[in-house]
Amino acid sequence: MPHSPALGKASDQAILFEFLYYYYAYQIEAGVFSESDRYIAHKCDPTTGTICTFNQFLDSVTPNGRSPKVIEAGDTTSPAIKGADETFSGMVWDYEYDPDHLWKGGVKLNHMAVTARVTNRIQEARGIQTVDSNLLSKAKEALEVVQPKRWKENFEKVAPDFQLKYKGVTLYETETTVDGTKVKVIDWVKTAEVQASKSSSKSKILLKRYQDWVKGNKGYKYRQHQHMARNIADFRNVLDAEPSCRAEVHDYVRSTP
Asked: pTM of the predicted model, to two decimals?
């Protein structure tokens, strides 16, 4: 079965919360659209009632024969976002999913494209009627957690890669606003200044070296994760806007700070 070509770039730490986001979006869609007009987890067939449990939802969107080893905590239609890491720590899943199962007709969609479509489906539902406020709140809460989770994993992974080239250099993080969106990034200026204070090199020279590294092939993973995190931030802004507002996947790889 095909799976998202971008899945390898998805964050292991964030993906649980991304699927909690998809799950609550699935419920929002189900409350507004007819069964024949649903796109999210359209193959999910609840054993009882009209809504699949979180476990059934996960089972329906994973490739055949590769379903996650679920736990009792997922046998619910209202999984809590807070503490979900601990709640679902016993679940075994390789994080692969079939985008065509998650989003009808999505076989060629990558991870961000699927997330954008799910976000827009929520917006479409909001444009038709007032959606369940609890479901919308849970969806927003899940997406809010995704951003710092992605950054945490990105920061943890970029440091070893960077230090293969620049041994002993400590990376520092900061928060900046890019296109009206707050995101965490590596503070290259502070990183260069601190390292310069420990050596005979000038901070401006070090800064250029470090920035050249992040702009090159070695820094691609960092830029790709930043691209995803910034798009997630954009999607959050969309959900806080009018129902007519739509999510788009922007290419932030080349402009990532």
From this structure: 0.88
